[in-house]
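Justification of resources, computational component.

The compute hours requested in this renewal are based largely on the per-chain cost of generating structure records like the one below. Each record pairs the submitted sequence with a full structure-token output. That output is archived, and it is also reused by downstream analysis tasks.
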Amino acid sequence: MQAKETLFADLVQGRAQQFQVPLYQRTYSWTEKQLRQLWSDILEQAELIERGEKANTHFLGSVVLAPSPQNDVTFARWLVVDGQQRLTTLSLALAAIRDHIRDAQPRDAERIDEQYLINKWQNGSDHLRLLPTQADRSQFAAHVRGPLTEQAAGGGVAAAYTFFRRKLVEAADPAAPQDVFRIEQAITSRLTLVAVTAERGDNVHRIFESLNNTGLKLSQADLLRNYLFMKLPTRGEQVYETYWLPLQDSLSNEELEQLMWLQLVLDGDDRVRRQDLYAAQQQRFEHGKATEQDIEAYISELHRSAALFRRLLHPEEEPDASVRAHLHRLEAWQAQVTYPALMLLLDRRERGTLDSSGTARAMSYIESFLVRRMICRVPPNNLNRIFQAVPGQLPLDVPIADGLHQLLSADNRFWPADDELREKIRKAPFYQFGRPQQRKMVLQRLEESYEHPEPVDFVAAQLTIEHVMPQSPGDEWLRMLGEDVADGETVEDLHSRLQHTLGNLTLTAVNSELSNHPFERKQGLLQGSHLEMNRRIAATERWGAKEIIARADELADRAIALWPAPLRGVGRAERSRDWHLAHQVLAALPHGTWTSYGDLAAFLGSGAQAVGNHLAGTPGVANAYRVLTSEGRVSEGFRWTSEDEGGDVRSLLSADGIRFTVTGAADPVQRLTADDLALLVTEGDDRTEDEDTAQRTPGGRQGEETRADRFFRQLAADDSPETVEAVRTLLARWEKLGGWIGHGAGQVTTSAFLMLGEAGLPGRGIWPLTLYPGGGRGGTAEVVFQHLAAREPFTERALRAELLTRLNELEGVDIPEGKLELRPNFRLSVLEKDRNRELLAEALAWFRGRWEERGTA
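The structure output for this chain reads:
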């Protein structure tokens, strides 16, 4: 057996060879969690390449190889005993890069193909440089050499390939552009592997077990603590009692590790990763030949900094009211990425070079930077790099707050100016971007700007975000909207365009009788609200497009006053983020789905005509031909933008799994709405407000309406008694299976979650369905495939596909496979049929059984 460190390029390049994954190996199983971590490592290495740093590489893991029985002297074949997940993932990433550049740089695309993916002169399965297990083989082959068929579109291999296609589009973001060839170089030449090569007769399974039986690993903080006290042979006991024990008592092990990392960043090392903390700090001590006094001084400084760090974790410990308010808001924002800048400010104040007023002003710039970017939908993917660089890049010739203002306004920081902020508040679907608590904080700050003499206690009030014009409007709402429809736009398009904009959103804790009723019935309750913004809404005579836009303009004025603008005159890139976001979401369209110009426009906060013009004039946009009219037809104005593209659009759509009706229109079941598109680019941990607050409904006091009561009252308002009774039967069957019913905190529209797991712990449970009252259009059951994709055992796509198949057995339910990563729904009225209730009960029993087996699989 031989073991040596190698690179992916060195492993797979060279003479004709093939890496074969044995048939007894499990199928490809990496989920988006592992893919996101790998992508982060790749981008970091690409950035180091851009800086010209050659020494740093990233260790990816081991690959155990053994000679294949089919090996011969002219064509080397290796069995991949361990490491197939890494090799498959890296190969798919390179296939995505090849396809990403194919139109613009066909020679480089061919080079990538021949260097890493195929054996050019071999035929059949030998053509592939990596040969996965039989279960993954057709999928992998289709993504490496085509054609992509409907059968090969699902599964983990397809999901990984789509992930990289989407991330490559995202990496071209002008706010943080990444050169695609540096990304290729990072994958092939900066990710190191340990290749363990067995000889014939070696026990490769014993090798595999020894490599993977690692036991409980020490944290970075544990390793560094052990190192520090080994360096204190005479002073260790006193230093431990004086500094380390209080430090350890004030912070958890994870928090202590974060503080140690922050200390390195504050010292100017803006490149160190938290997982490399121990090696980086050890290297500094060894390079400087640290004495016992140096080690003691470092631990003493950690002890001092811990008190400052605790204020970030526990803002109530901050003595200054203005600084404390900023820290509370940043904590609510979950702005851990800003910790390097915040620690720098608190440290400078502690040392006397900054006062509390300057600290608060500097924090207002940080808050504004985050809020304006979120409202204007700037991707957050580069925030870590921006704030980690603050201590080392802060100008030295100006006051600290001014220097931070200048630094955050610099080129490629993308801190939106007033005109962009105003436009996005008017047009962008605010409700679909950022995290729930971030959206709530923006509305809370806007309410506070009215400076009401009796301000609301936002903690005690338990306010939720509500749509004034409901998401499921009834006939009266549609008639009102019809008065505002412009030429070429339908009422549905206008509703889709405005429903999630900031002008249509408010905070409320009012009684749920608001539901989705006409505006006249909402006015009385809003008038009695303690929130000034609600009283102003109630004072209007109607609530249509003009009123929503007028309120958006008023809120924009307040936002501009609340959150300081960046400095003018600093070089800024052109505003191309909206189209970049369009390219990103189109690249992520699942196989077997299409969208319309209106849906894409509503998702972007743009207009359908502008979307059409952009797609018609921009070459190389992935899946542009899958944007159709609202009727599901190819637009008369559609044209291929380059000679490299082309072909019959309908044939291409059929190859992509799009079905057509008898009238020749694309199947509306496969259409992705603006809400569906938003889910395609939403990270898995961005839950909705109701999911964060879902809880088992306790018994209420006499006369008090419980969440369960509210749910059934709202359901009965729009659905037949037969549907309501069918839902009661469904929930009772679920509880008999051992599940429990959680209800969201929504007041205007509530919800019911079919839960398994621990009650009262948001994020700890799992549920297959969320039930919603209909708001005039009939209640729906939402199938939360997106939620399940991040929870075991349903991270395995085959299990989610099995759930979809079982649900589609219900008469009246037809969920396309292309929505397997989204949140499709079906009408609760289908449960009126006895057979449908039995089929759904069987599907739920199957779901619970798979969940129970997760610990023994």
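The longest strand covers residues 58-67. The CA atoms of residues 605 and 611 lie 10 Å apart.
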